[in-house]
């Protein structure tokens, strides 16, 4: 990836990484399906305002909106609902580890379903290094809950698989020449339309206790910066760098969580945090490949001469 794409990836990691602690607070007062509905609806409204201010229009053909519906299920409805429900039973640290399995699934799937993102030993090594780094940052204490709430853990793994398929499916929008902001707006609009009857029938939110101001503020922060702006960046990177590279963001989320904890909550960095970040950096450089290729050229007999 280019330096610009790496900067966008880090920005996306910050936006999405900040969403996890906010989601932990919001899900205590909003049912998972209602939370998903409000999240995508607020994000969609924000993007519609932006796209109108830019003088752009969404595609009007049926094929594009069918594609947006597919993205809505794979990128929003399925993973958002599964993660929101799973976090009722699974600690945030375990959630981060499970979501970080997304690039591993993506490397495998992209090998079989794309022509330009084939699996290489270096990419596989990078994915394994990244997952080891995530696990190191989270620490062994997070794994004490494994096996207790199996269905919650399986739900989060299901979200990771959904993200994998979404990354591959989302390449179609770029191939059709649809702008990233139009793709994000169309996807979130379809997510809202699909989720509205589901949340109303299942959760019946009108009969629930009114959420607190804190929960509403967390929801707004999740919907606008994390979801609306986050998906603008997501589709921009996906269009130029591919499905495997965009899923590297899941490796950076635990790093973001640690750094935000230091900045906002005054938490202290431990040795495992530095070790985990080093492993993640090695994994990202392996998947990117350029540093390793230069190192190999530098050690080749021709280079030595």
Question: What is the structure about, briefly put?
Answer:
The chain has 305 residues and is an all-alpha fold.
Write the layout of secondary structure elements.
Elements: H1 3-26, H2 32-53, H3 62-86, H4 92-99, H5 102-113, H6 121-138, H7 150-169, H8 171-175, H9 180-203, H10 213-241, H11 243-246, H12 249-265, H13 271-288, H14 290-299, H15 301-304
Helix pairs in contact: 1-10, 1-12, 2-3, 2-9, 2-10, 3-7, 3-9, 4-6, 4-7, 5-7, 6-12, 6-13, 9-10, 12-13
Explain the overall architecture.
The chain has one domain (3-304). The chain is 79% helix and 0% strand. The protein has helices at 3-26, 32-53, 62-86, 92-99, 102-113, 121-138, 150-169, 171-175, 180-203, 213-241, 243-246, 249-265, 271-288, 290-299, 301-304. The radius of gyration is 20 Å and the shape is globular. The chain starts with a helix and ends with a helix. The model has no long low-confidence stretch (mean pLDDT 83).
**Integer-rounded radius of gyration:** 20 Å
Shape: globular
Strand % is under 5%
How many structural domains does the protein architecture include? 1
* Terminus-to-terminus distance: 30 Å
Helical segment count: 15
Mean pLDDT: 83
What is the string of helix and strand elements? HHHHHHHHHHHHHHH
Helix content percent band: over 70%
The count of strands amounts to 0
Structural class: mainly alpha
Largest sheet: none
Low-confidence stretches: none
